[in-house]
Write a structure and sequence with these properties.
By secondary structure, this protein is α+β, with helices and mostly antiparallel strands. The chain has 8 helices and 21 strands. The strands form 4 sheets. It has a 6-stranded mixed sheet, sandwiched between helices. A 5-stranded antiparallel sheet has the order 2-1-4-5-6, with helices on one face. Strands 14-13-12-15-21 form a 5-stranded antiparallel sheet, with no helix packed on it.
Length: 357
């Protein structure tokens, strides 16, 4: 299906990344909030900044937008230096960035049409030109029926779509989104998430999306940057972040995981709580070795090579989630079959990795 609203991207033959952040640092009251962050976002990509509250992801976003001044580092937008340390080279207004805030910031006394039109008026467009663009962007977000409605009459999801329409109407170089779905209930969240993905893919606007929600990050992003205590722990495609974590924090934070320290017994042999197991040890490089596997990668079965005692059981979305104890260590398993708490079980680990941190 063809849509009338298209974002025109200037031709940049020699620019690899629309956004380039180099060694970005920010301090508040002598405390480092963002520490030496470096990342790049290619044309048309959606990068998710994922992390817990207070990890520095929103501060990073606000520095990119020009709403906060870095203490050190550089921000480049389409190959042009926007800031160098505390020196602002390009002001916030001149960066041509669209922003969707957590609180949406829609004006309640203005209609949907007037909210979206506000950003266009400063660009010197005629009334007819503004109307054409507004009709097209409302069609893009499937909100053309609500032109004359006031934000207070719309649902949270509908308000979110209007906020997105307002952000992209000026055809920004970069779209920044700060926890846009945090106040929307779970069922509606799934629908709006799909709308955001559709809009971003169709417009091909390069986007940085801040979230603490792993589902948002994994379902929306081309790349995920995991942050922790102001530092960038790992950046990569979702599959890499999930399957090949490069730090203990990423391994334990992303998804459910079992991580336990083990000892290397020899090439491809490790000593575990269940004895010696065969597993690729790669190159330990003198680091601590950890056995890593996801709860769904273990199967309870009579012929299993591992053993333990069930100490807790939960039933979630058609799956039993077990907490199992063995040799003083607790870990998590999933199974379709119901087993009693206190039962001694055997299980096999279908896929496991040795990680070195």
């Amino acid at each position: 299906m063809n849509y009338p609203y298209q974002i025109e991207i200037p031709e940049c033959k020699f620019i690899m990344n629309v956004l380039e952040v180099k060694h970005l640092t920010k301090n508040y009251n002598k405390k480092e909030i963002v520490r030496d962050i470096s990342l790049g976002v290619e044309q048309g990509q959606l990068l998710a900044l994922l992390g817990t509250s207070g990890c520095g992801k929103t501060t990073t976003l606000r520095m990119i937008a020009g709403l906060e001044t870095p203490d050190d580092g550089e921000i480049w937008i389409e190959g042009t230096l926007a800031s160098h340390g505390r020196k602002v080279v390009i002001s916030q207004k001149q960066r041509h960035i669209g922003m969707v805030f957590q609180d949406l910031a829609l004006w309640p006394h203005m209609t949907v049409y007037e909210n979206i039109e506000f950003g266009l008026k400063a660009n010197g467009l005629t009334r007819a030109e503004r109307r054409k663009k507004i009709e097209a962007v409302l069609h893009k977000v499937n909100m053309q029926k609500y032109t004359n409605a006031y934000p207070g009459k719309l649902s949270g999801g509908q308000q979110q779509l209007i906020a997105i329409a307002r952000a992209i109407i000026t055809e920004p170089r970069l779209l920044l989104m700060d926890e846009p779905l945090s106040s929307i209930d779970v069922k509606l969240r799934e629908d709006i998430r799909q709308e955001i993905k559709r809009i971003q893919q169709e417009t091909r606007i390069t986007t940085v999306y801040v979230t603490h929600d792993q589902e948002d990050a994994f379902l929306l992003a081309d790349k995920i940057a995991v942050m922790n205590n102001g530092m960038l722990e790992q950046i990569g495609i979702p599959e890499e972040i999930y399957s090949s974590p490069t730090s203990f924090f990423v391994a334990s934070f992303v998804g459910e995981a079992n991580i336990m320290q083990v000892r290397i017994a020899g090439k491809d042999r490790v000593l575990t709580p269940w004895g010696e197991l065969v597993c690729s040890t790669k190159d330990p490089d003198g680091k601590n070795a950890y056995l890593f596997f996801r709860p769904h990668q273990a199967t309870i079965e009579d012929g299993g090579h591992c053993h333990g005692t069930i100490i807790n059981r939960d039933f979630v979305a058609g799956v039993y989630k077990y907490r199992v104890s063995t040799s003083g260590i607790e870990f998590k398993l999933q199974d379709q079959t119901k087993h009693d708490i206190g039962k001694c079980i055997k299980f096999s680990i279908r896929k496991m990795d040795i990680l070195f941190f």
